[in-house]
Automatic annotation (TrEMBL):
Residue span(s) of domain Prephenate dehydratase: 5-186
Top-rank taxon, per record: Bacteria
Pathway, per record: Amino-acid biosynthesis; L-phenylalanine biosynthesis; phenylpyruvate from prephenate: step 1/1
Single annotated GO MF: prephenate dehydratase activity
Gene name linked to the record: pheA
Name listed for the protein in its UniProt record: Prephenate dehydratase
Glycoprotein among keywords: no
Signal peptide residue numbers: none
Assigned EC number: 4.2.1.51
Record keywords: Amino-acid biosynthesis, Aromatic amino acid biosynthesis, Lyase, Phenylalanine biosynthesis
Catalysed conversion reaction: prephenate + H(+) = 3-phenylpyruvate + CO2 + H2O
Organism from which the protein derives: Sutcliffiella tianshenii
Length: 289
């Protein structure tokens, strides 16, 4: 039996890598340098699945994922993975021995933002440089080619992978720090690995809804279509349509798998109101340890 091929935001030891390793323990992993490249790899048949970050509990949505998924790469969501996030301040072992002050800190922009209070208190004069991922920051520091006294923010897997020393543990500002990742496939296919060991957080359906133009109360009517059917919405978010100022669509998450009556009825009602509706996926959300 062929192994599933899974593309993820690399390099090795990103939080996405951790999610893939946990959820696809038998899968064949392939790292990509950007989120769009990872998603394109599914469309091109290079991999079977893509796992990309969607939302962080502290920093909110990953807009590049949302926008590329909706505008450029229409892949169905087949699963959601919720991963607890622990950020650490890592340095090259030589830096730890020297004890020199930290002048520059590298990491992904979301990771830097998640640790703002710690950084402001401990390193108010440091310069923050953003990288494509936390692991790429760790890789940069590990190569020890930096002229400034440097550190990075990344996870424990990155510390192990790139042989870095932990200068400070759990530096994120809030304890309930989780990131949602989505699993994408070319078809609305079943996940082939056995995931019975993972906790099921919820069943979800995600929609993209575009309101009819120049119709007052349209959003209220959209929400009413779910409310009277007692369909619980866990998220509603607006994103620009990229067609001009003031033009938005809405991403709506419903805490229910697509059924034969309620959700199709709601979608039909929205379309009757003049809305455009697209189903991004109907899937299981898993809480990983």
């Amino acid at each position: 039996m062929m192994k599933d091929r899974i593309g993820y935001l690399g390099p090795k030891a990103t939080f996405t890598d951790m999610a893939v390793t946990s959820f696809f323990p038998q899968g064949e992993k392939k790292a990509y340098s950007t989120i769009p490249a990872c998603m394109d790899a599914v469309l091109n048949g290079e991999v079977d699945y893509a796992v990309v970050p969607l939302e962080n509990a502290i920093e909110g949505s990953v807009n590049v994922t949302l926008d590329y998924l909706i505008h450029d790469c229409p892949l169905p969501i087949v699963a959601e993975l919720i991963v607890p996030i622990s950020q650490h301040l890592l340095v090259h072992p030589d830096q730890l021995k020297n004890g020199d002050p930290i002048e520059v800190i590298y990491s992904h922009s979301h990771a830097i933002a998640q640790c703002h209070k710690f950084l402001h208190k401990k390193y108010p004069n440091a310069v923050y440089e953003t990288t494509s991922s936390t692991a790429s920051a760790a890789k940069l520091v590990s190569e020890h080619r930096l002229s400034k006294r440097s550190a990075c923010i990344a996870n424990s897997l990155a510390a192990k992978e790139y042989k870095l020393s932990v200068l400070a543990e759990d530096i994120h500002d809030y304890e309930n720090n989780h990131t949602k990742f989505i699993v994408l496939h070319r078809d609305e296919a079943m996940i082939t690995d056995n995931h019975a060991s993972h906790h099921v957080d919820s069943e979800k359906t995600s929609l993209v809804v575009t309101l009819p133009s120049d119709q007052s109360g349209a959003l209220h009517q959209v929400l009413s279509a779910f409310a009277w059917r007692k369909l619980n919405l866990s998220k509603i978010e607006s994103r620009p349509m990229k067609t001009g100022l003031g033009n938005y669509f809405f991403i709506i998450d419903i805490n229910q798998h697509m059924d034969e009556v309620l959700l199709p009825g709601a979608v039909g009602e929205l379309e009757a109101l003049g809305c455009s509706v697209k189903v991004l996926g109907s899937y299981t959300s898993y809480l990983l340890k």
